[in-house]
Design goal:
Helices cover 52% and strands 20% of the residues. The chain is built from twelve helices and ten strands. Strands 1, 2, 3, 4, 5, 6, 7, 8, 9 and 10 form a ten-stranded mixed β-sheet that branches.
Length: 279
């Protein structure tokens, strides 16, 4: 019999098959894309409370020859599952090092921080420190004003191991920030053990800051946490002037979001900071 639920089940199954096929296709193509240079990095500027650039987050992009732009949320997720994130993450880190080297060569009048996203798998790989050290040495990078972003949920997967890894990374000279703060299993007890430098307030709370009291309360609580633990703080996904004003009123001093800048090419980012910060 053709019940409504039966039809749903068929559609659901077709949907699942379509998804499985797409995942398989993207997995195969990702491997080719890495050798064909179809990935590239962009930079999203971060600003202080005067709107002046203080840094940028580096974000990966994939322009698929047939499917066009694939969202990193989609392909990074697949790469995490298949393990391809390890070579991809290494490529990302190397690209980031090249950016950092070019940035350092600009001799700007103000220090500009570049942030790199580390995936959970990459962070927990046994030889992370050796691999990172090898790339730094290969390109003769001075590890200064380089921030590594790790999601809150990644850090909480294994707090003891995370503490050891973060400590080792900081010893090399990296700064470490907690990405997507507030979306994990936020518990204050773990925070005091994590030797991190910065918290990034997740966009989901910023978006609702003027609409929902609970989001505003989470932002306020996060700022209090940052002050208590002496951590830097940046608000992510700031899209409107109203959000900026509320965040500023609450004491926020660093911002990243479309209201200021969308992700731009590395070249445009360099032009922007050169314009602002050369004598
Ligand atoms: P994320 O690390 O939280 O990065 C911030 C995301 O928010 C970026 O999306 C950025 O373009 C977007 N964004 C920034 N400001 C706004 C805003 O005002 N409004 C809205 N709606 N969005 C804003 P993107 O580039 O699509 O990246 C999505 C996620 O994919 C990232 O979230 C990160 O988890 C992952 N990802 C991106 N690049 C990399 C990478 O190089 N390595 C790793 N491991 N993950 C990456
Ligand atoms: Ca991030
Ligand atoms: Ca984030
Ligand atoms: Ca600090």
């Amino acid at each position: 019999a053709k019940t409504a639920t039966g039809t749903c089940a068929v559609f659901y199954q077709q949907d699942m098959e379509k998804q499985t096929r797409r995942r398989y296709l993207l997995d195969t193509d990702m491997r080719k894309a890495l050798t064909q240079n179809d990935f590239f990095m962009v930079a999203q500027p971060q600003v202080d409370d005067n709107g002046h650039i203080i840094g940028a987050e580096l974000l990966i992009r994939w322009n698929h020859s047939e499917l066009g732009n694939i969202a990193p949320m989609e392909f990074i997720g697949i790469a995490e599952k298949t393990g391809f994130i390890i070579p991809l993450g290494e490529w990302i880190f190397e690209q980031a090092c090249l950016c950092i080297k070019s940035l350092q060569a600009l001799s700007l009048t103000k220090p500009i921080t570049l942030a790199i996203n580390l995936s959970a798998k990459q962070f927990y790989q046994a030889d992370l420190i050796e691999r990172i050290t090898a790339i730094i040495n290969k390109h003769q990078i001075t590890v200064c004003n380089i921030e590594l972003e790790l999601t809150e949920s990644a850090m909480l997967e294994d707090v003891d191991l995370a503490v050891a890894k973060i400590t080792a990374l900081k010893k090399i000279g990296f700064e470490v920030s907690i990405d997507d703060f507030g979306t994990g299993y936020s518990s204050l007890s773990y925070l005091k053990h994590l030797p991190v430098d910065k918290i990034k307030i997740d966009r989901s709370f910023v978006t609702l800051i003027d609409k929902r009291d609970d989001s505003r309360a989470i932002v306020e609580a996060t700022m209090l946490i940052a002050r208590t633990f002496n951590l830097d703080l940046i608000a992510e996904g700031v899209e409107t002037e109203a959000e900026v004003n509320t965040l500023k009123a609450l004491g926020c001093k660093a911002f990243q979001g479309y209201f200021y800048y969308k992700p731009i090419s590395i070249n445009d980012f360099f032009l922007l900071v050169t314009e602002q910060y050369t004598l």
